[in-house]
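YM 10:42: ATPase sequence, as discussed on the call
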Amino acid sequence: MMSKEDLTAYIHAKQSEARILSHNHLEGIDNYRLNFYKLKEHIDNFLKTNGEYYNRCIMMPGLRGLGKTTILYQLYDYLISEKRILEEDILFLDLHDLKSISDIGLSEIFNIYLEEMHHSIPPSLDKKIFLFVDEAQLDKNWANFAKLIFDKTFNVFMVFTGSSALDLELNTDATRRITKENIFPCSFEEYLLLKHNISLSNNNFKDLILKGDMETVDKAIECEDLIKKEFISLNNLPNIELKKYVYCQAFPFALNLNETIIYNLTNDIIEKIVYDDLADFYEFKNSTNSTILRIIAYLAIKKPGSTSNSAIAQSLNINIRTVNNILSALEKSQLLFSINAYGSAGKMLKKPKQHFFLSPTLKSAQNFRVGRYSLGHDKCYASLVENLVATSLNRLSNETMQALGLFYDSNKKGVDFIVKHLERTIPIEVGIGSKTKSQVIKAINKYDAEYGILISNRTNSIKFENDVIYIPISSFALM
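YM 10:58: structure's back
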C-alpha cells in the first residue's frame, strides 16, 4: 500500500509527464476525430458557464485501437495551449499505470490531488479543474466515484475512457449524470478527413434513409453534387478510396501503414480483446480462448446470412451453451453485433440472428489471416460492403432519438435489411455487380412500404424512380 506521500509524489510526476506524453503521442497527428469536437464543445460550455453545466461527466467506451487515448491527449493539449489552463488544474490518470503500482481507488487519489494541489475538498472547490481517466474500467467503482463528484461540485469536468465494460458499472443514478459518447471505428467521412485532410460539406443522407420524400431526395442530390466537387481535391477515384477504407483503414492507427501491417495489428487487437477484455463479461477458462478465436474466424469467413448457434456448435464441434456464452460476450465487447429477423415476436425468437463485425476491417483482417480475401474479388468486397451497411444502420439505430429497429429479411430471396422507423417499413438491398431492383420492388409490395432503397455500385448518383431510391455505395458510406 502506497503512503500518502508516495501518492502525492506520483500525482506530481503524472502532471509533469502529461505535457511531454501529450507532445510525443500527438506528433504527426494533425487532424481530429469528430468525437473530439463534441467533447471540445462540452468543455467550452463548461468553462463559460457560471454555475452548473450538466454535461460535465463524459464516458467514452469503445474497442481498442479507436483513438480514445489520442482524443484525451488532444483535449489536454487544447486546454493547455488554447484555453491556457494550468497544468496543476488537469489530472490525467492512466489506470493501467496506476494499477501496476497500487490498488488505490480513483476516489482516494482524487481526494489527495484536491487536498495537496488545491487545498480543498469537492464541495468547497472554487475553481474549474479537469479529470481525464484512461482505461477507467480497471476501477470497478469508477461510476459511483463519478456520480459522487458530480453531485458534490459543479467545478470538475470528467472524461472516462475504456472498453465497453464501462457500461457494466453504470447504475440508474450514474446513468442520469454521465453523458455517453461511444467511440466507433472511423466513418468514411472521418477517413477522408484524417487521411486526406478533406472536410466534406454536411449531408442529409440519414434523412434520405428515414424519410424518403421528394424534398429530402432533392436535397440529398444537391448535397451529393457538392460533395462530388469537393472530391476533386482527393486526386483519386472515390470508389478506390472507399475500397481502401472498407478493407483495412477504418481504424485511426492504420491510415499510414501498409496493408499487411494493418491486418496483423488488427488481428492483434482481436486477440487482446479475447485474452484480456472478455473476462469482464464472462469467466471463460483459458483453454476456451482458442475456441473463441475459432468462432470469430468462422463468422468472418462464412457466406453472408444468418447462422444458428446450433449450426456454429455443430460445425466447430463445440458445446451449444459455450457458443451462446461466447457470442454474448463478443457482443458485449462490441466486437460483434447482431440483428433479428423481421416479423412477429415468435418469428424473431425462432429465426437465428445475423452477426456482423463492428467494422468490415475486422472481418477483412480475419480473412486476410487465412488467405481468403483479395481487393479485386467482387464477392469478397460485396460481403464487406454488406457489413459496412449493417454497421452504418446499426450506428444510426443507436444514435436516432426516435424509435428505429434494424432487422434482416428471412424470406427466401428477401432483401438484405429492413429498417422499421416509427410506422414506416423500409426495405434495403445492397448490390455489388449484377444485383437489380427486383428484390426491393418485391419487398415494397410485400411489406406495403412507401419506398425501398438499393445501395449499389451500379449507380453513380442518388436518384428516385418507381418508389426505389438508388444510392451509390460511396454516398451511403458518408451517412
